[in-house]
Structure formats: C-alpha cells, structure tokens
Amino acid sequence: MKRYLIAPGPVAVDPHVMAVMSQPVMHHRSPQFSKILSQVRKDLKYLYQTNNDCLIFASSGTGGMEACVSNLLSPGDKAICIVGGKFGERWAEMCDAFGVEHVDINVEWGHAVDPAQVADALDEHPDAKAVFVQAHETSTGAMHPVEELGKIVGQRDGTVLVVDAISALGVYDMKVDEWGLDVVVTGSQKSLSLPPGLAVVSVSDKAWKFAEKAKNSHYYFNFLKERKAMAKDTTAYTSAVSLIIGLAEVLKQIRERGLENLFAHHRLLSGGTKAAVEAMGLEQFSKAPSDALTIIKAPEGINGQDIVKILREDYGITIAGGQAHLKGKVFRIAHYGYLSQWDMIIVIAAIERALNELGFKVELGSGVAAAQRYFAEHKI
Ligand SMILES: Cc1ncc(COP(=O)(O)O)c(C=O)c1O
Fold first, then answer.
1. How do residues 160-203 score in pLDDT, each as one tens digit?
2. Last residue of a domain, one of 238, 257, 276
3. Do the beta carbons of residue 304 and residue 331 sit within 8 Å?
4. Burial letters for 280-317: b for 16+ Cβ neighbours within 10 Å, e otherwise?
5. Is residue 80 part of a domain?
6. Domain containing 264 — which CATH number?
7. Residues whose beta carbon lies within 6 Å of some atom of ligand 1
8. How far does residue 5's CA lie from ligand 1's centre (Å)?
9. Number of folded domains in the chain?
10. Range of the domain at 146
11. How many CA atoms, within 13 angstroms, populate the side-chain half-sphere of residue 105?
12. pTM greater than the 0.90 cutoff
C-alpha cells in the first residue's frame, strides 16, 4: 500500500534529504563535520531571524523544553505557564519536576491566551522569572500571540519569555529578535522536515544572564557547555551527525527558497484545506487557527478516531486524532513537512470517502473542488 504521512509530526521527509543523510557517518570532532556545523549555526540564525546562539541537542523537542526549565531557573523560583493544551500542560509538569513554583494561566482549549491576562499575572507575580508558552499549541491548533507577549515580558528585566515553537518555527513568520522572544525551542520532526531526534534552542543575551545564575540540576542538557562547544563549531557531546547533515541540507534549501516563500507555501496548503473543511460542511476546532495544521471537529455521532483509522488502515494515509479529552472529537491534518498541495487534495478526498463510509453524507468532490479552486486562485 502506498503510504502518506500527513500528521503533525513526525513528518514526511524529502527522499533527497534522506539520501544526503545516508552518506557514511563522519566523526563528530573532524574538520569536515565542524565545517558543516559552522554553516548550520549561520543558517539556523537565518531560520530563527536572530543573532542569538542556537544550541543543538540530540533529543526530541521535549528535551529542548526541559533544557529551558532546568537551565534558566532554580528550585523555588516562580514561573508563569500558559496552559491551553497538552503542550502547555507539559511546561507546568516540567516546573513541578524541577521544583519551580508555577502560576498557570488556564486557557480554554482551542483559544489563544489574552495578552492582558499575562500582563496582569506578571503584575501580580513580579518575581516570576519566566513566562512559558507555546507559539502554536499542536493539540488544539491555536496560535498564542507571542509577538504581544514579547512586548509585555520585554519590559521586565527579571523575566524571560520562553517559547515552545516546535510546531511553529519555519511554518509562519516569527521574528525572534524583533519580537523579543528570549528562548525559542524547535524540533527536527516538524517544519524542519527531518526525522525526529534534534532539538534546537535559541538563547538571547538576557536569557544567558539567567542561565549563568540558575542552580537547577542538569547534566546533558547544559546551555553553558553547549554555548562553549558551539563557539568552536562542535557540540559538547557526540553530535547526531547524520541528522545534522540532514539539517544542513534542509537549511540550505530554506535559504535558497527564502523564508517568505516557505511561509507562503504553508499558507497555501492551510488555506486550501480550510476552504475544503467549510465546503464539506465541517467545522474547524481552533478559534485562533494557524497555518501549521487544520484541526477538524468530528461530526456529531462520529468518532474522530474511526476517521483516523479508516484513513490509516484502509487508505494508507496517516493523519492524527485528538489528544487527551479531544480524543475522538477532532482529527488533525498537518501542513508542514515534505508536502504539496496535491497531498492536501489526497487527504481531503480520503476524508470525504471516510465520512460517507461512517454515515455522514458529504458530496464526493465537494471538499476537493473547494481546495482546487483555492489553490488555483492563490498560486505562489
Ligand atoms: C508544541 C509542541 N511542543 C512539544 C512537543 C513535544 O515534542 P517531542 O514529541 O518532539 O518531544 C510537540 C510535539 O508534538 C509539540 O507539537
């Protein structure tokens, strides 16, 4: 069966990038590899739109998040966590794991946080050393207003803004320096269109001051050691050489293509899919939708997991279901990864068929036609 991976991560990888990664493994302390890492450092700054250091860890994205908590804060410190989905909850859980007191701003799933709530929380807790947020909450499809949060947190010398941009960086515009995003985490298996296994964290000058003072336990995930190593075009411990070689190739392609074109591509895939959702008589879940994903509510009386199962088992197409209390209620289609508008047409066609099989009547071709029209009218 021909397989399609259209889930929010891991994502499909360009076969050319896979071929580049399959070259013989080189030694991580060799001049050849240092040259690659030196270029990767520069290209990451382009992707991040930053002059900050970008540290690379061999881990999934969660490792990058954990590194932020353990490197920036000490036990007994206070932080504000924006909790509007599964990944916001993870910030709060990590604070618990590292003895950090946290004030949670609970946001209804699918909604974006109101920046005024964050400003109020900081007024009430001026001793909070960090605000933890997702740029895009993958479990709900909602984008939090990180640009506004950057302005609010930027006025406070004693607080840093830490952004989990694992499903946002490289998907849509995020001006890390201009917006004052102190620490920004991403992972390789999302918009970097690579296999899982790398986390990247950018750290601002302001955040380095926190890292230099923090007293939490960590060993592998050590910002200061990685900064020292990166300055010498190496990593503190054995580099994930094959993945970094893949990263070098992806970043080269992104530079050649230009960030604007990359964002326009995601906008196109997202716009066409969202037009199809409406045409099929379905509803989006998110109230602050992004171009990273389209999250669709399962129609009344239909279990969203059944849609996911039919697509995966009968049609060879992997999308994602809902997480936590959204399980069965929604299904999620990704727009990042090695995907084109034609992959969107395929997944929309499959959803039309699956819904009919499950007894929800959708005119075959209605979603596909809307997407086709959208794609034709919005050529990049
Ligand atoms: C916003 C967000 N944060 C964190 C994670 C966790 O990353 P990982 O599964 O790579 O550890 C994910 C993964 O889906 C994510 O989308």
1. 999 999 999 999 999 999 999 999 999 999 999 999 999 999 99
2. 257
3. yes
4. bebebbbebbbbbbbbbbbbeebebebbbebbbeebeb
5. yes
6. 3.90.1150.10
7. 9, 60-62, 87, 134, 138, 164, 166-167, 187
8. 17
9. 2
10. 15-257
11. 24
12. yes
